[in-house]
Amino acid sequence: MTARSEQRPEQRPEQRPEQPSEQPSPLLSAHALHKSFGPTPALDGASITVAAGELIAVMGPSGSGKSTLLHCLAGILRPESGTVSFDGLELTGCGDARLSELRRSEFGFLFQFGQLVPELTCLENVALPLRLNGVRRRQAEQQATEWLERLEVDDLAAKRPGEVSGGQGQRVGVARALVTRPRAVFADEPTGALDSLNGERVMQLLTTAARDTGAAVVLVTHEARVAAYADREVVVRDGRTRDLAVAR
Ligand SMILES: Nc1ncnc2c1ncn2[C@@H]1O[C@H](COP(=O)(O)OP(=O)(O)OP(=O)(O)O)[C@@H](O)[C@H]1O
């Protein structure tokens, strides 16, 4: 036993001081967002908070504003009013160049159809975000190889996206989304094009990898079994959000 542990004997659970009940301060938050497309309102006062390491499922009916909320959070769309903050930085006050730099260096993206670049091999696709951040080819490809191994698709490194299955392509997409170790990951229906077995596998790999890297994940999904991987659910209806505490 060390001197330190002698001085401070381990507390039994019932002796522990009460933990503060507040949520951890959010890494990413949006407040009172409004966004319309012409006459169509997409967001009507939507708000959301996401802590580092937290996985939030954004659910709701088709056309309710889920993707628009995700795109505003990721700095892809600008809301007409309301604020979006990432780690204390007000995204809504940033210029386009700062936003694209933020997306490249701090955010990872995963979409329904993987959206891999068809001309590049799977390895080059995963290395691409690193290359765009100025990492040298050799180092980028080495890191990409490690991520392909982690997602159990390293045998596909030399293949192009057109030569792999949907599930395999989506695992390559997960590797590409996480290869820069982003602090926030935005996933829009990442399992929407997969059968349930492949969908489960992609979700397991995505959640394990995101938890290992401590990334905050915002996941838009229609599927309750996909949302079951989340720590919390936010439901969007008619452009407004409702937070559901999920006991897990
Ligand atoms: N680029 C756009 N141009 C015009 N209208 C748009 C555009 N993007 C979204 N909308 C409209 O905004 C509203 C919200 O769309 P959004 O895609 O955010 O909903 P969603 O909940 O993600 O839908 P889904 O589940 O079907 O993908 C819808 O009425 C949609 O038609």
TrEMBL record:
SUPFAM superfamilies: P-loop containing nucleoside triphosphate hydrolases. GO terms for molecular function: ATP binding. The keyword Transport applies. PANTHER family: ABC TRANSPORTER RELATED (PTHR24220:SF685), IMPORT ATP-BINDING PROTEIN (PTHR24220). InterPro entries: AAA+_ATPase, ABC_transporter-like_ATP-bd, ABC_transpr_LolD-like, MacB-like_ATP-bd, P-loop_NTPase. The keyword Transport applies. This is ABC transporter ATP-binding protein. It comes from the Bacteria. Residues 1-26 are annotated as: Disordered. CDD domains: ABC_MJ0796_LolCDE_FtsE (cd03255). Residues 28-248 form the ABC transporter domain. SMART domains: AAA. Residues 1-19 have a biased composition (Basic and acidic residues). Keywords: ATP-binding, Nucleotide-binding, Transport. Pfam families: ABC_tran (PF00005). It comes from Streptacidiphilus cavernicola.
